[in-house]
Amino acid sequence: MRHGKADDETECLFKVGTLPVPFKSPSKMASAEEQQAQKLMAEADKKSASATKTTGFISGVFGGSSSGKIDDAIELYCKAANIFKMAKNWSDSGTCSLKAAHLYQRINNKLEAFSKFTDASNAFKKNDPQKAIECLKQAVAIQTEMGRFSMAAKTLVSMAEICEAEPLRDIPQAVGYYEKATDYYQGEESKSQAQPCMLKVAQYAAEREEYGKAIEIFEQVAERCAANPMLKSGAKEYFFKASLCQLSVDPLNAGQALARYIGTCPAFQDTREYKLMKALLGALDGDPDGDAFDAALKAYDEVGRMDGWAAGMLQRVKRRMGGDSDLT
């Protein structure tokens, strides 16, 4: 079969080896990128060190030569960070962004410093979550100093999420960040943003059997929802979670709490969750073998399964009855 002219020329180029750009494997390209970034970072380090030496009386009297060097160093660090990022070298990318952040602090550019601390955290999060949190701590310090507490709260939530995830899985630390974020949001009257943070604190409190704390938060959120026509439908979920915590403490308290909840939100009485709680209370009162307890749960799950957190709470109640059936 006869090829076209263009095909013949291309074939000839391959034969004589005259292609203008030789092919490089992806691994070699990545290595070349990292070498380029390393050179940029080394050059930035020199400019940063030189600026430090010239800072002081002479710089203040005769001009901002050190400021120009700092600007140049920042630009080089940012370029290097992006190249390392493309090469998926997260550690060096984070280090370059972190160095740029510290230089921005030296020239009192707080917004850019915050941005670079955030970039550094995003890079470190891939393989060094603790260092990522340390970067975000510095970002929060800048935000609070500037009076931007809603932004600081959002950053605290990011810190909490890093703590929740593997490999850290540091729940007490995560709860502390969620609580601080709640304080900041509430101080700014951002109640809708504070609510998810509060609910995280309540759920973890219940898992640690701090039922009083969990009940207080769930009831507070439920009452807020019940008082707002736009949020009213959500009240049943939080009254149900408060009821589960009450049940974990004492069935008598749970029964009294249910009566209060329908007084605050009469629509709760018509929900599947309320009916389940009444059935469970009846089972606990007159069914030492737990058969009625299991039957109530089965009837509920036939319509729609409860979430894992609620199932875990009821598993604890079941164990106290002397049973060990899997409710999840």
From TrEMBL:
<protein>
    <submittedName>
        <fullName>Beta-soluble NSF attachment protein</fullName>
    </submittedName>
</protein>
<dbReference type="GO" id="GO:0005483">
    <property type="term" value="F:soluble NSF attachment protein activity"/>
</dbReference>
<dbReference type="Pfam" id="PF14938">
    <property type="entry name" value="SNAP"/>
</dbReference>
<dbReference type="GO" id="GO:0031201">
    <property type="term" value="C:SNARE complex"/>
</dbReference>
<dbReference type="InterPro" id="IPR011990">
    <property type="entry name" value="TPR-like_helical_dom_sf"/>
</dbReference>
<dbReference type="GO" id="GO:0035494">
    <property type="term" value="P:SNARE complex disassembly"/>
</dbReference>
<keyword id="KW-0931">ER-Golgi transport</keyword>
<dbReference type="InterPro" id="IPR000744">
    <property type="entry name" value="NSF_attach"/>
</dbReference>
<dbReference type="GO" id="GO:0006886">
    <property type="term" value="P:intracellular protein transport"/>
</dbReference>
<keyword id="KW-0813">Transport</keyword>
<keyword id="KW-0472">Membrane</keyword>
<comment type="function">
    <text>Required for vesicular transport between the endoplasmic reticulum and the Golgi apparatus.</text>
</comment>
<keyword id="KW-0653">Protein transport</keyword>
<dbReference type="GO" id="GO:0005774">
    <property type="term" value="C:vacuolar membrane"/>
</dbReference>
<comment type="similarity">
    <text>Belongs to the SNAP family.</text>
</comment>
<dbReference type="GO" id="GO:0019905">
    <property type="term" value="F:syntaxin binding"/>
</dbReference>
